[in-house]
Structure formats: C-alpha cells, structure tokens
Amino acid sequence: MPRCHNQCTVRKTCLVLLLLFASAATPASAAPSARSAKAVAVPAQVDSLEVDAVTTYRLEPEAGVIRVTVEATLTNTAPPRQTGNLIETPFYDLFGTAAIGPVVDASADVDGRSLSTSIESSGDTVEFIVVDLAPNLVFGAPQTVSIRYDIPAKPARSDFATRINDAFASWYAVGTGSSGAADIVVDVPERFEVEFTDLVTPTPVVSDGRAVHRLDDLDDSQSFFGVSVRDDESLVKRPTKVDDDEFEIQAWPGDEAWAAFAVDAVDRGVPVLAARTGVDLEGARSIAIAETATPYLYGYAGWFLPEEDRIEIGDELDLQVMLHELSHLWFNGDLFDSRWINEG
Q: Rounded to an integer, what distance in angstroms lies between the CA atom of residue 117 and that of residue 94?
C-alpha cells in the first residue's frame, strides 16, 4: 500500500496587492521619515504560520464512510516590516490539509461563514483540501477554520487503503498542525478493537456506544499512521476440513469471492504442502484464516500468528500469498529456528 508523510500544507500565491497611500513628491535630499510610506501586502513565508489543530476521524460503518473534521487555529507570526518607504504586510490567502484519498464533500467555514473550498490531487493517493481564506490571514488576527470532508469506503481489492464494512475498517490518519500542536481523535463504535500503526493506541473514552481514542501534541514523525479497526464477531464464518484438521475461513460481510477463494486454496493447497514437505500436521488442528487489510498498513500481504493458530491475510485473491502463509503451519519456530528457511 502507498505510504506518504505529509502533515499540513500551506500554499502561497504570487499575487502582490499594492495598497498605495499618499505619495507626495519630496526633494531627493529629504529623510525617509519625511516621505509618505507605501503599504504593500506580500505572500508570507510558510515558517511564519502556526497551526494548532484537532483532526477527528469518525467511523460510520453503516453509511460506509469516515467523516473527518479539522478544527485549526491559524496564526500569522510575521508582523509588518518597513524597508525604506515600503511597509510590507505578509499574509496567507490559502490553507490546506492533507488526506489519503479519495475524499468527497469538502467544505469549510470561519465563524459559521462559508469559505470557498476545493480538492486538489498530488500523485495517486494524496489529496489536499484547500481553503480560500477570506479575509486573508494577517499578523494579529488569528482565524479558526473548520474543515469537513468524507472518506468513502473503497471496494475489496481496491488500490486505496480505505476499507469500511461491518467487521473491519482501515485508513490512514493524517494530522494537521505545527509540530507538537497536532491532535488526532479516532471515534468508532464501541464494539470495534482499534490499532494504530507505529504508535501506542490510547485507552479510549467510552460513551453512548462510541469509543473515542485521542492522541495529543503529536510531532511531525507521529502525525501520520494507519488505523485498523476490527470486530471479529461480525466476520462471516465458513468451515472446511482437510483430514483431521479444521479450518475456519473468516471473511468480510459481502465478500463471497474472497471466502470462496480461501476455501479452495485450503482444500487444494494443504494436501500439496503436506505431500511436498513429507510431514503431516501434528494432531487435529483448528486453524482460523481471517480476511483483513491490517498487514497492508505495515507493508505486508499477510501473517501467521502461531500462538493462536491464526492466519490473517489481505483481501487480494493471491494464491501464492495464501500458500506462503499456509506453509507457516510447517515452517515456523516450532520446526526451524532460522528466519531464512521459515520465510524462504
């Protein structure tokens, strides 16, 4: 799955607004203070923008959508400066927040007043929700901008990371804010178990059937991560048996293609693996094979959890990956202690 590190993006225009005041002619020998100053509005540098923001991801599986809200307080720290008879007033006219797309239904406002908003793509997966600040952001006049957009579900085997169904959801969370001033909130139905990649998942606050996980004061290295939520009780179970070993296929609701693929791979593949290795599985095993997208968030296609006799594998109908994970029933720490043979 594609990965991208992007936090908050501000785009500045090249447009310079000249605000000309009185400019009475004065002798060349006159001191600068005796001349009328000319006020000039100029695009500000990005490093003079401070952003303190909370980005909330609210999962609504029944609607097949993640509703995202960004509450960002913007402060322009660049004061007007005088150079000769020019007074320059740095400003920002646009503000943007990044998302792993596609996103839809973007809107924004300041104090309830709607702002012009657009969605711009950068590459295959990153999108920017760009807001036209009105008035422009100038020194001494902070603005609190509310941005809203939706991340819709993508079908199984989509190129995008987003999956949303009644048993599972995954997406990439992108924080907006200056380093150390980016907060991210993940709000899901209480029945889901939540995992954040690369970060410790906080203890949620549970209320009205929802579980709210909050990460505060994230720096640049923490404000991009994968989110995986699962409700294994809602997976569709389909058993199959090979000799004395029982396999339970656990598929997402509505993905019959993956369930049929997994059953067929077990029924045909396990006997071949046993024959090729020359070793039968010890005893009567009970093995679960679950459909998930969590490995994708870590850069894997699937994995085997030996302590649980459980395989978790992506939604691609990839027989080679399925057979590789099934081979770990033999090639694991119980039989070999070297990674080269277990993975090779």
A: 10
